[in-house]
Hints:
By secondary structure, the chain is of the alpha+beta class. The chain has one domain (3-124). It contains 2 helices and 5 strands; from the N terminus they run βαββββα.
Amino acid sequence: MRFRSTQNIFSDLGEVFDPNWMDSDKLVLPPNPKWDYSRPLQIEDVDIWEVIWEAGGGWGIYASWCPYAEFYMLTIGVNENKQTKEIEFFYGPLSQSAMLKRAKELNIPISTHDAWVEDEDMWLYSPPEIKSLII
């Protein structure tokens, strides 16, 4: 797992790493408090991103790690002034599915894995239940 700050991503320099993490025989990760979804998450709210996929030329997919939320950022290339051409955000319920669909459209090779989701967080990964009234 790799982690980057927003500044790391847009300057293409470095990553979030503490050499002390290597002093343990267990996996040590940066803190990742949960986002409470009381308001929409903004890029300015994210301190640390998990790197999902990166390629040269400013291409990358990142997931909000600190705070931990269903919030993804997709960066698509850079221009001659080293400015990102396009940034797309995916937030909230079903954002992971939308991000994966967009990655497929862009031919980004991304793998998927099963992950455990707590019952109280299932609303973020399931389509809303459609209730019908039959009279």
